[in-house]
Structure formats: C-alpha cells, structure tokens
Amino acid sequence: MSTIKIHDKYFKPVITSAEIDVAIRKVATKINKDMENKTPIFLVILNGSFMFASDLLKMVELSCEISFVKLASYEGTSSTEKVRQLIGFDEDVTGRSVVIIEDIIDSGITMENVLGQLAMMGAEDVKIATLLFKPDAFRKDYKIDYIGIEIPNDFIVGYGLDYDGQGRNLKDIYKITDNK
C-alpha cells in the first residue's frame, strides 16, 4: 500500500483489507446473536455501503430480507448537511426489525434522517450497523448498535467510500494527506 492520487488530492493508507475483514466479522457475530430469533430487513445505504453490505451479509446466518436506499449528502470532501433521497425505500416495515447498513457515520445527519423515516413507517426495532464511526464528528443523540472501527475525523476513501465518484473500488481505506 502506497500513497495514491485521486483527482487533485493525495491519500495515504490507514486501514488494510485484513483489518476491515476482522471488523466485519465482529459486527456479523453480534448481529447473528442479537437477531437470532428474528427475520430482519437489512436496509443498505447506497452508494458507499455496497462493499461493506456485501461482505457483511455473507457472514449473516439469519433468515432475512435485503433492500436498498440511495442517499447523498456529500460534495467533494465536505458534507452539505442536507440529505437528498435519490432512490427511496418502499418496503413495508410495520412491526419489523430493521438493521441499517451504513459505510460511515460522521456527523450523524444522514442516519438521523433515515431513523425518522423508519419511525414514521412503523418499524418496531431499528438497529444501526456501520463499518466506520467518527466519534469526534458525531453531533447527534442516538445509539449506534454495531461499530466496526472508530476512526479520527479525516476524509477517507476506499472500500466503497469515494472522492467525487472515484476510489470506491479500493480494497483498503486511505486518508487524505498533503504529501505525495
């Protein structure tokens, strides 16, 4: 792993694919235990969560359903703090257990929006699973049930996360740097 360039920015490696695998296994083990006698709906937040969701759901040993919603709140390296719904969620969740799968939670604004929608739709039990969590950026007041890795408040790419559409395909995670 070495420094890479995406568009006009440089990124250095911070989390290896092996570390990601360990974190995902930890999350899957907890979900399997917590949801043992339930048939949850896994709600995958696109685009960033596609790799995490794919690897996580291969380890989930439950009867379940999977659905997707596409939201956007970033432009470049910054959050707009406005959540746009690009593909909506149309499953009936009344009285159901839902596990939201998110790639990263930083400020918490996007997740707060999703939680509000699910509450209005009548979900009985909602859990949150995130691969990455930035505690120093988090500004909301809700519980995150499954956290793979806590990270500093750096802009990162790789393993589903992008910088203006590029970098999602990287198997490792990189953080922005000023150095080449």
Question: Could you walk me through the main structural features you see in this protein, from its secondary elements to its overall organization?
Answer:
The protein has 3 helices and 10 strands. The chain is α/β, with parallel strands linked by helices and 180 residues long. The chain has a single domain, classed as Rossmann fold (3-Layer(aba) Sandwich), CATH 3.40.50. The chain has a 6-stranded mixed beta sheet. The longest helix is centred in the first third of the chain and has 18 residues. It is globular. The mean pLDDT is 90.
Throw out a few tags for this protein.
180 residues; alpha/beta; Rossmann fold; 6-stranded mixed β-sheet; 4-stranded antiparallel β-sheet; 3 helices; 10 strands; 22% helix
The CATH level-2 architecture is identified as 3-Layer(aba) Sandwich
Give the H and E element order.
Answer: EEHEHEEEHEEEE
CATH topology: Rossmann fold
Number of strands: 10
Major β-sheet annotation: 6 strands, mixed
Outline, from the CA principal axes? globular
Radius of gyration: 16 Å
Helical/strand content category: alpha/beta
What would CATH call the class? Answer: Alpha Beta
* Average pLDDT reading: 90
The largest sheet has its strands arranged as 5-4-3-6-7-8
* Count of the domains: 1
Question: Strand portion, in percent?
Answer: 35-45%
Give the N-terminus to C-terminus distance in angstroms. Answer: 13 Å
* Count, helices: 3
**Helical amount among residues, as a percent range?**
10-25%
**Poorly predicted residue ranges:** none
